Amino acid sequence: MDDHTHGARFLRLVNDAKTRVRQNDVVAVKAMLDEGRQFRLVDVREESEWKADHLPGALHLGKGILERDIERAIPELDAVIVLYCGGGYRSALAADNLRKMGYTDVWSMDGGIHGWRDARYPTVAD
To answer: Is 85 a catalytic residue?
Structure first.
């Protein structure tokens, strides 16, 4: 998604979060999956977006409930967690919040599912 489709205040908030969170691109995340690396892949998009398609092996915890439900879903604070959304904006905000909650190895997938699809990597649908 293009920065021009988002409001300036939203982009400032995202860019501020990105100063504190680590990011992987879609190529790196695909390599992690292909190598069989152990990590939790979390889709933070809305339920309707999730149902349309998502990355194989992903867990759905929408941004609206992520902070509330993450401790039950992933109780280990040192778990490697990769968050993704549509383009990497919401996942950066979510990663920043998880970092504030004490999670130590959280990543945001830059490019999101749009970048994943552009690379022609596989998705699944519910």
So the answer is: yes
